[in-house]
Specification:
alpha+beta; flat; 5 strands; single chain
């Protein structure tokens, strides 16, 4: 019985951690940057702190979107792709 209870608790903990990692996609205004942790305030006023791979030089007041730990500043031009073959 104890083994089943321990297994059940481990399963619930694992699913909770996985759920938090998927919930890290946020969009809003940066309120604080500490190392690789960025605190963002969304449109509803809720503050969320997210650990990211790279801060992308984000600073307080910047409007950003974070997906999968990657920071993208809103209004920033997307990276221009080079053409493989340019006309002859």
């Amino acid at each position: 019985m104890k083994k089943i209870l321990v297994l059940l608790i481990a399963l619930v903990f694992t699913l909770g951690v996985v759920g938090l990692s998927f919930a890290a996609d946020v969009k809003g205004t940066v309120t604080k940057v500490e190392g690789k942790k960025i605190t963002i305030k969304d449109d509803k006023g809720k503050e969320t702190t997210v650990e990211v791979k790279d801060t992308a030089d984000a600073k307080a007041g910047d409007k950003v979107e974070i997906k999968g730990g990657v920071v993208t500043k809103e209004g920033a031009a997307p990276a221009k792709k080079k053409k493989v073959i340019e006309g002859c």
